[in-house]
Amino acid sequence: xxxxxxxxxxxxxxxxxxxxxxxxxxxxxxxxxxxxxxxxxxxxxxxxxxxxxxxxxxxxxxxxxxxxxxxxxxxxxxxxxxxxxxxxxxxxxxxxxxxxxxxxxxxxxxxxxxxxxxxxxxxxxxxxxxxxxxxxxxxxxxxxxxxxxxxxxxxxxxxxxxxxxxxxxxxxxxxxxxxxxxxxxxxxxxxxxxxxxxxxxxxxxxxxxxxxxxxxxxxxxxxxxxxxxxxxxxxxxxxxxxxxxxxxxxxxxxxxxxxxxxxxxxxxxxxxxxxxxxxxxxxxxxxxxxxxxxxxxxxxxxxxxxxxxxxxxxxxxxxxxxxxxxxxxxxxxxxxxxxxxxxxxxxxxxxxxxxxxxxxxxxxxxxxxxxxxxxxxxxxxxxxxxxxxxxxxxxxxxxxxxxxxxxxxxxxxxxxxxxxxxxxxxxxxxxxxxxxxxxxxxxxxxxxxxxxxxxxxxxxxxxxxxxxxxxxxxxxxxxxxxxxxxxx
Length: 488
Known about the structure:
A 7-stranded parallel sheet has the order 8-7-6-5-4-3-11. Strands 1-2-12-15-18-17 form a 6-stranded antiparallel sheet, with no helix packed on it. Helices cover 26% and strands 21% of the residues. It has 11 helices and 20 strands. It is globular and about 70 Å long. It is α/β, with parallel strands linked by helices.
């Protein structure tokens, strides 16, 4: 993630040069993410991580409660950080205990019906530079210098030794093979796990600029010439073990400043574009400035790749360091509206209790303004979505879709804590699902509308698991209403 204070000098000038403050989002034509049944998916969730512990303590900061709380707050998705340095501490020696620990975390996710993308994460390459990610034995620097920046760790990506290490990872044949083998091991182990939706092949990849290149030019070249062939190699490695999962591919973090990616087409039928959504000024502690036009510029840039290559988008990380600044309520509303226009979902950073980026405070309540990430939404729509939107001001979610053409199919709704009233139009019924969820069963091919509003009437008792219109039928053209309590 872009926890950076790069607020001065040529680096920021290069970052901001392509950004147009008055850019406006164009019409979006981005394909949806789907599940094995062809249902249209929406993922809403958070990154789940333990960067502090390694070895026999690895992943111990992640608990079953994390997934129980995640689902109870109305989320169905987790981006799980795993580290190559723990997976393969010595060349060719894979950590069986680490794989078991990853499996235990995935079991917790499955227990609470949380979909997981396994992210093979790196920060500033890895342990050779004081972080996590690519093992020291796979780090080659050609003895170039490295200076730590403890108050601005993202600046360490611009150290010559780190940049050269990325070049070797992309270009050295033995490191290419090692990276592919690591992914084959992960995919072979978890290919059939019910929680696993896909794999994020590398977190926030960076590289080495050539003399005379500004940062956006270097980023586009690295993405086109080095990342695209790397993703093709890793896709082959995963597919040799798992033919079904989605593969998440990231551009460099420079996309966060409204710079379109230079990635080419990745040769696989199930690719998801997975950019991150961070702003340099806000990462340095500044408040959100709506007049700066960052969100429209980002949206315009980030949708070009999925529109051209016809792949869905899931934003892998987003969220400011300080959510309590005066304009942050506006930021979360603008950001959620933007993400809803083009993405199939997102994972906020990060699901933990405490300060800073944590989603929750020490007592388990949302930190300021982060409750705005918890909206009603359709986790899975059995049919073609005509429109879906949430009005944060009125607190109303609306979904319109055409039901799948064959048989009865189940559309699943996710509801944040509270009591919700669901009204369905068309030949459909509503049934109560597990806590915080409801199901809509529609006649094949029917045109269905769903409206979800927070129920203001505390006098309504219990929950109706099905509903009937005035004629007594459980389906029909008349609207149906059902009260479903969200998770407590």
